[in-house]
Specification:
Radius of gyration: 20 Å
Strand order of the largest sheet: 8-9-10-7-11-12-13
Helix content: 25-40%
Structural class: alpha/beta
Number of strands: 13
Number of helices: 13
Order of helices and strands: EHEHEHEHEHEHEHHHEEEEEEHHHH
Oligomer: single chain
Length: 375
């Protein structure tokens, strides 16, 4: 097991809004366990402004040079999606662990190619799925595992957000080749990952999608019905056309209904635990609501990732655990495109949707050839 310095040395790759708004505060929340030693961005002025704003000692425009000179323990990849693959691979090959923003990659094929650069004991790459890490989600996951509320029967997974036309003026947004998809890939992925991480293996998806109001190549709305191995059925909606924004998950069990209603993050107050009629007097705590209250956040996931890094263990939202939602999204897109139900075993290298979320061979691209786009 590699001995890591105190604190863990972190590099930020991509100095945009997500790095400013989420990742730097997450690192600073680690109580001396991590510190940012460098930032990389293709725009030199942006990199230098970021470094000055956050008191980061070094700013670079070259990822390779930063890796050679700084030798960080962990790289946080915050580039546009098209540049994820090249950045992750470069870091892993340099022996550096990676934490990458969603979506993990633009295709399942790219995800699997990146995984080949990991090594036993690390470095590993983990992906940002912070909603798994709140205390209420962790409690519910344990209740599903133990059967405390009975077998899950019905679920709802809705990401109803709003993005206007100006949002898509950013050149890489709304394009299969550079964003990988619409709200299914870039927005609802968080809620869908949480649903899948709680409900277990899915067995079939039937889906539809449309481009109803935005001038984009991808969808701006998708809907799906999903069956799970345990028998549960779940409805999913992903929208960027919904003025009253909400992120809503619901789980119906024989003993209770458990609901989460939030927007971009939650604490225990966003969860509702409603007993079934035969348990009408049960309190939320008696049903299983946690007493501890840890909000979902980048900081919560980073804390868990740092523990795994120090132990040389594969972290959550990595490997097969990080791949699950990406393979599901590929299946959803295939079903929506073909009008047929799709099962997990269908997403193989022989399937065009394994190589591109649009299913079009021309949409597959070599990230290495376009590394300058975001790294």
């Amino acid at each position: 097991m590699t001995e890591y310095s105190q604190p863990v040395r972190v590099a930020i790759v991509g100095a945009g809004n997500i790095a400013d708004g989420c990742h730097m505060p997450a690192v600073q929340a680690q109580s001396g366990e991590a510190t940012v030693v460098a930032v990389v961005d293709v725009d030199q002025q942006r990199a230098e402004a970021f470094a000055a704003r956050w008191n980061v000692p070094a700013a670079y425009t070259s990822l390779d040079r930063m890796l050679q000179e700084q030798r960080p323990d962990l790289a946080v990849v915050c580039t546009p999606p098209i540049a994820h693959g090249a950045a992750i691979t470069a870091c892993l090959d340099a022996g550096v662990w990676v934490w990458c923003e969603k979506p993990p990659t633009l295709s399942v094929a790219e995800y699997d190619a990146i995984a080949a650069h990991e090594r036993e004991g690390g470095p590993y790459v983990s992906y940002v799925f912070q909603h798994r890490f709140g205390s209420a989600a962790r409690a519910l996951r344990e209740h599903i595992r133990t059967g405390r509320l009975g077998t899950p029967l019905v679920g709802v997974c809705h990401t109803l957000w709003y993005r206007d036309d100006a949002y898509f003026e950013v050149p890489w947004r709304g394009k299969w080749e550079t964003e990988g998809g619409g709200p299914t890939m870039g927005h609802g992925i968080h809620q869908m990952d949480l649903m899948l991480s709680l409900m277990g293996e899915w067995t079939e998806v039937r889906a539809a999608m449309g481009t109803l109001a935005r001038d984009v190549e991808t969808e701006d709305v998708s809907m799906a019905m999903v069956r799970f191995a345990g028998g549960a059925m779940v409805s999913m909606v992903n929208s960027l056309l919904s003025p009253r924004e909400t992120s809503y998950l619901r789980f119906d069990f024989p003993e209770a209904t458990v609901e989460l209603s939030h927007l971009y993050g939650y604490d225990n107050s966003h969860w509702t635990w409603t007993p079934a009629p035969h348990r009408a007097d049960a309190t939320a705590t008696e049903l299983g609501a946690p007493l501890d209250d840890e909000a979902s956040s980048h900081a919560a996931q980073l804390r868990a990732l740092l523990r795994s890094l120090r132990a040389g263990e594969r972290p959550e939202a990595s490997g097969d655990d990080g791949r699950r939602v990406l393979a599901f999204i590929a299946s959803l897109y295939e079903s929506a495109t073909t009008g047929r139900p799709v099962t997990p075993d269908m997403i193989t290298p022989a399937n065009p949707f394994y190589h591109s979320m649009s299913g079009r061979p021309g949409a597959a691209r070599d990230n290495a050839a376009k590394e300058k786009t975001g790294v």
